Amino acid sequence: FLQFSDTGSRKEHVKVTSEPKPGFLERLSETSAGMLIGLVTFLLAFYLLFTNEGRAVRTAKSLDEGLSIVVPLDSIHSISQQNEGRLVHLAGALSTSKPLFDPSYGLSIQAVKLKRNVEMYQWVEYEDSKEYEENGEIKKETKYSYDTEWKSEVVNSRNFDREIGHKNPSAMAVESFTAVSPNVQVGSFFLSKGLVDKIDNFKQLSLSHLEDPHADVTRGGDYFYHSDNPRRPEVGDLRVSFFYAGLSGDDPHLGLADKVTVIARQRGDQLVPYPTKSGDVLEILYPGDLSVEEVFQKEHESNTMKTWALRAAGWLSMFVGISLMTRIFYTLVDWFPVVRDLVNVGLKVFALCVASSLSLLTISAGWLFYRPLWALLLALLSAVPILVARSSVPPKKQQ
Fold it and tell me: 372-381 and 337-367 are packed helices; what angle lies between their axes, rounded to 10 degrees?
């Protein structure tokens, strides 16, 4: 059945569907499919954990190698042939050959990147579901609510539970885009595409000093509105904002050009990736004026964070995989409430312990070629979760 209500601009209705409670064979079939997904997730965890350790050590070695050979440049305005092919460190203000334009809105800026962000006022559907059992049936109560919001992507209203009264346009009349300067320099050196890609600290551009570009466009704050009344927009209205990254010239409204620090290989007047003996490449860019030591410290910190994030992802993948593969034991006893709850707790503890032990073993295997002593210590540590789990099981009483 359906139930409607209207709370201001937010509209909502409730829909209840029911289906027979799945039988034992049906639940067993679903569990079998889950076991297959669990197996894939479980195997993926091994690959993720093992390769992550090799990547972490390789990156650390490359950074240490880079720190030992990097050459700080005396001047960014002269190119020394002595440094050809070497890893160099330099810091200075960004510069570009010509400004970036958006002629549609009469806007130009001397920057590395200019992003036009277009949003449309649209209907958005929210869904909140809950399931319960009643008269031997599984009932699902879903509350659908609708509100209007500014969105950067087109929301497809055809997928709504109720499109009538909540219809969105199928496309935007104005598209978003990002313009990138073809030539970006620090002093006399041109940055590679990889270095330019790292300039991504976007800031919103103030439009306060600009005029309305067209009769049907109104400026309000830092937005251009395609709307009859920006204060009370209608579905289909557009608003446009601009963002820039890498200010590359002194601007009366925005201030001085952005400074960056670069560590890369000198090739003529180009700064390009430097291949290390460990098999990695060094092509580093940070905003601001940083010393060699500060740059490599930041890179090591970034490598450590990435390593731990991937370790956590690998462990979680393994835990989920084991949980899905052992779910069949829960399905076999799920008609006995007390037994079912005990089995559920037992399976979770089992998955937790096995995932922790196997994760530590896999990480130690990844270290075997790089840090043999640490690998051995970690392998011994991997037995701790299993021993803890076994010690928590009470011994059988003597007859």
Answer: 170
